[in-house]
Design a protein that fits this description.
The chain is an alpha+beta fold. It is built from twelve helices and 22 strands. The strands form five sheets. Strands 1, 2, 9, 10, 11, 12, 19 and 20 form an eight-stranded mixed beta sheet that branches. Strands 13, 15, 16, 17 and 18 form a five-stranded antiparallel beta sheet that branches. The structure holds flavin-adenine dinucleotide (FAD).
Length: 476
C-alpha cells in the first residue's frame, strides 16, 4: 500500500499533525523509533502554555504561539487532557530588569497578547505570598497555563488512530528513497511507501532531512534539568513563576503541575547529542539556587525525582516549517523548541497548509471525530462514582499504586487503549502509577504482572522502556 502521508516522529508535533491529517480523506502512517509515543522532548519539558510575549515579533514562533494558546486549550478539552489556565508571573529584581519587563510587555502587545499587565512586587505578593521580598515588579500574563505534555501526545496519537491513522513503533527510520513515491525504511528492514513525508523527528530532524539530501539546517541540542517536588509543595505558588528571560532561554521557573506537584527548572545547556538526558550535581544546584531566588521557601527536601529534557534548537532561533528545497513532497517541521508545546495545535494546522501548498489535495473527512473518551482517573471520582465503578468492575477496587491511588481497573484499561503501552514507563505516563513519592517501589511488580497478562507475555519479557530494558532476568 502507498500511504498519502508518512509522519516521522510520534512526539506532540507528529501526533497532533497526524490527528490534523485525519480530518481529511487521507491514509496516514506515523513512524516512531521508540516502543511508545512521547519519548522525546514531549515527555520531559515544563508543560507550560506560554502567554506569547517572548518570541520576536513577525517570526513563526510569535505567530504560532499567540494563535496556539486558545487552540491548545480547546483541543485539550476535546481530548480530556489535564490542563489549567493558572496564569504566569515574570519577576523583575531590579530597575534594569523592570525595563526588560516593559520590553516584554510591549513585545506581547505587538504579538497580540491580551490581558497582560505590569504590577508591583507588593501587588504580586498579595496574590502569591511566597514570592521573594526582593521582587520589585511582575509581568502578569493571565492567559498562560499548564498542561500534561505526554498525556497530550498520547491523546493526540490515540485520536489520530481512532480516525484511521496507523502507528508503527520501534520503526527507526534509516533511509528515505524517492522512486516516484517515498520508500521510508527502518533499521529492522521494514519499508513504508508514502506520497508525502513530514519530518517531525525533534532533535533528529536534521539527520532525517539529510536522508533526502537536505542539509539546510543543523539541530543544536540544548538540555534542561529539572527537580520535581512532592505534592506537599504543590501549593507553594498557584501561578507559574518565571524570572526575566535571557538569550539562553526562559530562565528557571517554579510552577505547580496539573497533577499537584511543584516543578522547578529547567537549566539551558548545550550538549553533544539528544541522548544526553542525565542530570548533574551542578545543573541541579543551579535549579535549586535560582528557584529559591523567586520563591525562597521552596522545601527541596521534598524532592521526588529529577529529570532532563533536550530541546531541538537551531541557530536562527525560529521554527522551520516548510517544504524542503532539496526534495519536493518532503516537509520539515524542525527546530521546534519552546514554545513548541504551546504552539503544537497551531503548528499541526500550519503544517497541513504547507502540505496543501506542496500539492496534496485535501477533502474533508465527514466521519472525523476529534473527541476522546475521558479516561476517568479513579482518584478524581466522588465516593459514589467510585462505588459505581467498583460495582461494574471489581478491578477498580484494587489499588496498585498507593502513592497516586491508581487502580488495577485503570491500568488494564490503559493497556488496552490506543496507543497501547508496551512497557512500565508507558503505563506510568498513562496512569501515573509509579509517579508518586515512592517512584514505583511498591507498584512496579504489580504493573509488570498486569502488562504480562494483558500482552500475553512472560514477566521476564516486560521492559522498563522498550528494547533491551528488561526489568528482571528470570526466576531465582
Ligand atoms: C527542557 C524543555 C522545556 C520545554 N518547556 C516547554 C514549555 O514549557 N512550553 C512549551 O510550549 N514548550 C516547551 N518545550 C518545547 C517542547 O517540549 C517541544 O517543542 C516539543 O515537545 C517538541 O515536540 P516534537 O514532537 O517536535 O519532538 P519530540 O517530542 O522530541 O518527538 C520527536 C520524535 O521523533 C522520534 N524520532 C527521532 N528520530 C527518529 C527516527 N530516525 N525514526 C523514527 N522516529 C524518530 C523520537 O523518538 C521522538 O519521539 C520545552 C522543551 C524542553 C526540552
Amino acid at each position: 500500500m502507498i500511504y498519502d502521508v508518512a509522519v516521522i516522529g510520534a512526539g506532540v508535533i507528529g501526533g497532533l499533525t497526524a490527528r490534523e491529517l485525519t480530518k481529511y480523506k487521507l491514509s496516514v502512517v506515523l513512524l516512531e523509533k521508540e516502543s511508545d509515543v512521547a519519548c522525546g522532548a514531549s515527555k520531559a519539558n515544563s508543560g507550560i502554555i506560554h502567554g506569547g510575549f517572548d518570541p520576536e515579533p513577525d517570526t513563526l514562533k510569535a505567530k504560532l504561539n499567540s494563535t496556539g494558546v486558545d487552540k491548545l486549550y480547546k483541543t485539550a478539552q476535546m481530548l480530556h487532557v489535564p490542563h489549567k489556565n493558572n496564569g504566569s508571573f515574570v519577576c523583575a529584581f531590579s530597575k534594569k530588569e523592570e525595563a526588560h519587563l516593559k520590553e516584554l510587555y510591549d513585545r506581547g502587545i505587538e504579538n497580540g497578547i491580551e490581558k497582560m499587565s505590569i504590577i508591583s512586587g507588593d501587588e504580586a505578593r498579595a496574590i502569591e505570598p511566597n514570592l521573594s521580598p526582593e521582587i520589585t515588579a511582575v509581568l502578569n500574563v493571565p492567559t498562560a497555563g499548564i498542561i500534561c505534555p505526554y498525556e497530550l501526545t498520547i491523546a493526540a496519537v490515540g485520536n489520530a488512530m481512532k480516525n484511521g491513522a496507523v502507528l508503527l513503533t520501534d520503526f527507526t527510520v534509516t533511509s528515505i528513497i524517492n522512486d516516484g513515491c517515498f520508500n521510508v525504511s527502518s533499521a529492522d528492514g521494514r519499508c513504508v511507501k508514502a506520497r508525502y513525508v513530514i519530518n517531525c523527528a525533534g532533535c533528529y530532524g536534521d539527520k532525517i532531512a539529510a536522508m533526502v539530501g537536505d542539509d539546510s539546517f543543523e539541530i543544536i541540542p540544548r538540555a534542561g534539568q529539572y527537580i520535581l517536588l512532592d505534592k506537599k509543595e504543590g501549593a507553594r505558588v498557584s501561578h507559574t513563576i518565571f524570572q526575566v528571560p535571557s538569550k539562553e532561554g526562559k530562565g528557571i521557573l517554579v510552577s505547580p503541575t496539573v497533577d499537584g506537584n511543584l516543578l522547578t527548572g529547567p537549566t539551558a545547556e548545550a550538549v553533544d547529542c539528544p541522548m544526553c538526558v542525565n542530570t548533574t550535581p551542578e545543573g541541579l544546584e543551579t535549579v535549586q539556587r535560582l528557584a529559591a531566588k523567586s520563591v525562597p521557601s521552596v522545601q527541596f527536601r521534598e524532592v521526588i525525582t529529577s529529570f532532563c529534557g533536550v530541546r531541538s534548537s537551531e541557530k536562527n532561533g525560529d521554527f522551520i516549517i516548510e517544504e524542503s528545497k532539496a526534495q519536493k513532497g518532503f516537509i520539515n517541521v524542525a527546530a521546534i523548541d519552546s514554545p513548541g508545546l504551546t504552539s503544537s495545535v497551531a503548528i499541526a494546522e500550519y503544517t497541513v497548509e504547507v502540505l496543501k501548498n506542496a500539492g496534496l489535495e485535501l477533502e474533508l473527512n465527514p466521519d472525523f471525530d476529534g473527541t476522546r473518551e475521558d479516561p476517568h482517573f479513579f482518584r478524581h471520582l466522588t465516593d459514589e462514582e467510585k462505588n459505581e465503578y467498583i460495582k461494574k468492575n471489581p478491578a477498580y477496587g484494587k489499588i496498585i499504586c498507593r502513592c497516586e491511588t491508581v487502580t488495577e481497573g485503570e491500568i488494564r484499561d490503559a493497556i488496552r487503549r490506543d496507543p497501547k503501552p508496551q512497557d512500565i514507563d508507558g503505563v506510568k505516563r498513562r496512569t501515573r502509577s509509579g509517579m508518586g513519592r515512592c517512584q514505583g517501589g511498591f507498584c512496579k511488580p504489580f504493573v509488570m504482572k498486569l502488562l504480562a497478562e494483558e500482552n500475553g507475555c512472560k514477566m521476564e519479557d516486560v521492559t522498563k522502556n522498550g528494547k533491551t530494558s528488561q526489568m528482571v532476568l528470570g526466576k531465582l
